[in-house]
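ugh ok fine here u go
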Amino acid sequence: MKEEVIRIEHGCFQRENLTYCFDISISRGECVGVYVDDHITSGTAYLDIFKGGTRMKNGRAYTRGRRVRTPELERWLQHNSMIVDKHRFDSGELTVQDFVVPLGKLMDWRQRKSAEQRLRAPESAAVLRQMELDVPPDMKLAELSMLDYYRLCVFRVWFWRGELLLLDRLTEILRQRDLEKLMRCVQLLLEQGAAVIVLDLDDMFMCRYSDRIDVVKNRKTCYRLYPEEYGEQLYEILGWKCRGSSVGQTGRQGGGRVVFQASGLELPGMPPLDFQIQGDEIAFLRDENYSTAVSLRDRFLGSQRWNGGIFHLNGTAYTPDELSKLIGTEIGIQLERPDRPGGMLFDNLSALDNLSACLLPKAGRHIAGRRVMENILEEASQWFPKEDLQRPLRTWPLPQRLRFSYYKWYLLNPRLLICFFPFAGQEPAHHGMIIDMLVTCAERGMAIWVISSGIDAICEKAGNEAFRRRLYYIN
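structure:
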């Protein structure tokens, strides 16, 4: 267990009459990314905590594992953290030595002399070489390139054994190859035991270098992502549109890539099935008498054993019996009647509780569930009235309840969504809505597998060209 550097639990901060709710925690040797929705408000307030401009009004704060009050926290941050951002120290007079051993630092002449000697010592020279920073101590600060200036900032944190470094939006300033050189220097700090916080809007950059990503939205810490969740993009699942420059490459699924593949799938009364479904594709398996659907449903939901076959989900091979462990997370099952029992909705719970039951486990381990629920409610209210979301689902009319059942899969975003007879028992007026929701789910990158009887007439009447383009027949 790494030693904790700083932790703030349920921190309520005040800045310019605005309230911010931030949860902060970081340990030695750890690099944490902070992804903000609006840097002018949330990002500035987050940084100002470390500058002393955003005051903590409520919450619990710890430094090095010891509980501290607000004045102690602010003093600790002032002496132990450093911010590197686009505002470089551009002085025509100051030298590299003046910057590393600042005149304003509280020390007597003996301490200053010792620091100046250490700056010229072999250990410092070796670290400067590792950082590829070839700058003599008497070189003017204004003559440094942006990359060398930032590397010098990192070196200064190393030199004074700083505990916390914050890097703010450097992807907007440095070229990609310069960023890579700078982050190699940052790695030396992490190996020394310092902690690093990276604030940025480029999610690909943070996913590459961060041990964890905290998502800040609407002036509060909403979600906490760990490496195994980076590909899932939790903030996108809950309605956040990523702003990184490589958004098209960050989704865990996408068109043109095989998400689900069945080989030698054996079902009673049918020849072995071999097929594959790509991300954003809708595969249709015709079943005129419902026997195939019943057989598949009973096997996927675990009441009967599979006869044989091999499955690949996102490139990983699974035996048929292993698939049951993925139901409800990686594989979604949409029945013709989505209400319980046997469906995927809890009729006696509110719509919000139905969403929270599946999404809360994906949120960060240290983030208050109440905050996640607030954001789920905010996202879902763009689809359904807010007051309806807080009522039991049994009070909803059937069309809305049916639409909500697909919306839940849209938020959860499984890799594969299997729909058993989605049009059976539904009024023709609702067929278009079901098709629209299937397209909406496919647009997220899911592989959709529909088992139903005839679909041609329904497609003709719905007239949804996006559905037609994605549809292909298995048999």
